[in-house]
Amino acid sequence: MITGQKGNRMLSERKAELVKQIKRAHTIGISGHTNPDGDCIGSCLGLYTYLKEMYPEKQIDLYLEPIPDKFSFLKYAEDICQEKTLDGAYDLYFSLDCSEPDRLDRFRSFFEEAEYQICIDHHFTNTGFGDLRFIFPEASSTCEVLCDLLDMDRVSMDCARDLYMGIVHDTGVFKHTNTTRKTMETAGILLEKGIHSEEIIDRTFFRKTYVQNQILGRALMQSILLLDGKVIFSVISKKDIEFYGIESADLDGIIDQLRVTEGVECALLLHEKEEGVYKVSMRANDLVDVSEIAGMFGGGGHIKAAGCTVHGESRDIVMNITHMVEQQLIKIKEEAQESVYDKRNS
Ligand code: 5GP
Ligand code: MN
Predict the structure, then answer these.
(1) With a 6 A CB cut-off, is 32 part of the ligand 1 pocket?
(2) Which of 28, 44, 45, 123 is 20 to 30 A from 326 via CA?
(3) Atom 10, ligand 1: residue with shortest CA distance
(4) In the predicted model, is pLDDT for residue 73 greater than 80?
(5) How many angstroms separate the CA atoms of 42 and 200, rounded?
(6) What is the pTM of this model?
(7) Is-contact 325 230, C-beta < 8 A?
(8) What is the best residue among 43, 257, 302, 317 to mutate for testing ligand 1's pocket, by most ligand atoms within 8 Å of CB?
(9) What are the φ/ψ torsions at residue 117 (nearest 5 degrees)?
């Protein structure tokens, strides 16, 4: 991952520090980001399982917002808590899959008051926080980063299932451009632990409840094309959410379906959390950098998948983002023309 001698040495030193800190700690806390997704849940449960199996004598606690039912078959899913179980501060605390401390939301103070903090992530927008950091933007997922840090010989089948699941989710089942040879090789090592990949993929990625399919259908039917079909958006209102009796996680997959619409460069899904407050999910195809746009609204993510929370009218939000997409596309076109001109004249 990190190339060059210096980088390697630094990484091996940091890995040694990681092991030292784990051995030193009597109490260890783990958290991931708000609205936990597959990679967040997989990395948190994977690390929790690994540490529990390796160090049964330590107090290890996992704090995450409630996870969707489809993940409840994973080992130790029932151990996830929301209320602090320890009096005082943790000796060691892990932040997983979070690009900034704010993403830990209600668990941020658990992390910040800990004696030693470790940040493990793969967002290139990561702000760089914690006493020890393993931030690898070239990794497909936080689960892939973890596979580089853990002793893979000591990863059990239960831990492997979590890590494989996280990789599957952040790569869209090994489909997104973040899938590298290393991702595949890592997944191969996890497969050899005896996990059932088809069960993990179907149960957690593809399977939909009836109502999830209904809201997907509705979002697609009500989607609108803008900018000559280069932008597509759909809005799920608070009323829709209440009507169908669903939550955020039930909207998984809608944005991916919008993105694969022919001709689209950028897909947007607005989900009204409270009146006038929208969670915006953005996905890009070849040209657009959605992390830049999300960043303008105080959010973040990756070049091709990013998000933010925006206050205002859905129409204004869509128009503002569409304008930014248009500006990016104009700039790309101009740069392409300049490079043709330079080539002709060289
Ligand atoms: P999603 O659209 O699936 O919620 O998120 C796509 C990507 O953007 C994920 O990597 C997620 O962590 C990141 N992301 C989503 N919302 C936010 C946000 O409000 N702030 C930041 N920093 N990242 C976000
Ligand atoms: Mn991730």
Answers:
(1) no
(2) 123
(3) 301
(4) yes
(5) 11
(6) 0.92
(7) yes
(8) 302
(9) -120, 135
CA 27 – ligand 2 centroid, Å: 25
pLDDT at 6: 55
Residue 308 CA: nearest ligand 1 atom is 19
Nearest of 130, 111, 33, 100 to residue 295 by alpha carbon = 100
User: Residue for token digits 């689209």?
Assistant: 264
- Residue 186 is encoded by which pair of tokens? 């890592």
Q: Separation of 38 CA from ligand 1 center, angstroms?
A: 13
Q: Mutation test of ligand 1: which of 41, 98, 99, 317 has the most ligand atoms closer than 8 Å to its C-beta?
A: 99
Q: Could you identify the atom of ligand 1 that is nearest to the CA of residue 40?
A: 12
**Nearest ligand (C-alpha, residue 167):** 2
Query: From the CB of 318, is ligand 1 less than 6 Å away?
Result: no
Residue 303 has which token pair? 């070049």
Ligand 2 geometric centre to CA of 341 (Å): 40
pLDDT higher than 50, residue 1:
no
Do 143 and 39 touch, CB atoms closer than 8 A? yes
Please give the average per-residue pLDDT across 34-63, as a whole number: 98
